[in-house]
DNA sequence: AGCATGACGTGAA
DNA sequence: GTTCACGCCATGC
C-alpha cells in the first residue's frame, strides 16, 4: 500500500491535519508533517499551506516554526496577522514574535 | 526525465 | 544569542 493510499496527494493530508488543530493550540511544521505521514517533509508542509487552496477551513495560522517563530511571508498579511489570530485564540506568546510552544503545543 | 524552488529542521561556527 | 549551511521531501515546468 502506498503511504498516500488515501487517494489524495500529501498536500491534502496536510490540510486535514491542520484542520484537526484545536483552537488555542499550535503545531509546528515538523509535527504536522509527522502526523501527515512525512516526518522529513516539513518543508513540503510549508508549501502546501502556502498554496492553501482553502484558507477558510485550513487554520494555517496555527502552524508555526519548530522554535515557535512565525512566518514573515505569511499569506494573510504577514506574521503580524498570524500573531493577532493566535493571540485572539488565547495562544500565549513569549515575546511578540514567538509562541509559547511549551504551553500551547498541540498535543495530538 | 531532470532541474529549480520552497511558509522547515537541525547542527555547528 | 545569532547567523550560515546542509539535507529532506514533494511540486511544477
Helix/strand/pairing class, anyone? mainly alpha
**How many separate helices?**
5
Question: What is the mean pLDDT?
Answer: 89
Biggest sheet record: 2 strands, parallel
CATH topology: Arc Repressor Mutant, subunit A
Query: CATH homologous superfamily, by name?
Result: Winged helix-like DNA-binding domain superfamily/Winged helix DNA-binding domain
Which second-level CATH architecture applies?
A: Orthogonal Bundle
Distance from first to last alpha carbon = 25 Å
Q: Quaternary state, please?
A: single chain
Question: How many β-strands, per DSSP?
Answer: 2
Provide the spatial order of strands within the biggest beta sheet.
1-2
Summarize the amount of helix as a percent range.
25-40%
H/E series, N to C?
Answer: HEHHEHH
Top-tier CATH class: Mainly Alpha
Low-confidence stretches: none
Number of domains: 1
Please provide a brief summary of the model:
Helices cover 39% and strands 4% of the residues. It has 108 residues and is mostly helical. Strands 1-2 form a two-stranded parallel sheet.
Structure explained in plain terms:
The protein is built from five helices and two strands. The radius of gyration is 13 Å and the shape is globular. It has helices spanning 10-19, 29-36, 42-51, 79-88, 101-104; strands spanning 27-28, 63-64. Helices cover 39% and strands 4% of the residues. It has a single domain, classed as Orthogonal Bundle (Arc Repressor Mutant, subunit A). It starts with 9 loop residues before the first helix and ends with a helix. It binds a DNA duplex (13 and 13 nucleotides) through helix 2, helix 3 and strand 2.
Amino acid at each position: 500500500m502506498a503511504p498516500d493510499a488515501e487517494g489524495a496527494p500529501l498536500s491534502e493530508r496536510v490540510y486535514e491535519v491542520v484542520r484537526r488543530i484545536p483552537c488555542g493550540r499550535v503545531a509546528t511544521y515538523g509535527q504536522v508533517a509527522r502526523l501527515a505521514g512525512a516526518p522529513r517533509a516539513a518543508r513540503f508542509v510549508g508549501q502546501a499551506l502556502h498554496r492553501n487552496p482553502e484558507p477558510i477551513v485550513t487554520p494555517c495560522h496555527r502552524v508555526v516554526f519548530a522554535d515557535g517563530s512565525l512566518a514573515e511571508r505569511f499569506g494573510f498579511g504577514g506574521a503580524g496577522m498570524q500573531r493577532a489570530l493566535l493571540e485572539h485564540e488565547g495562544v500565549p506568546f513569549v515575546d511578540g514574535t514567538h509562541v509559547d510552544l511549551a504551553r500551547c503545543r498541540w498535543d495530538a
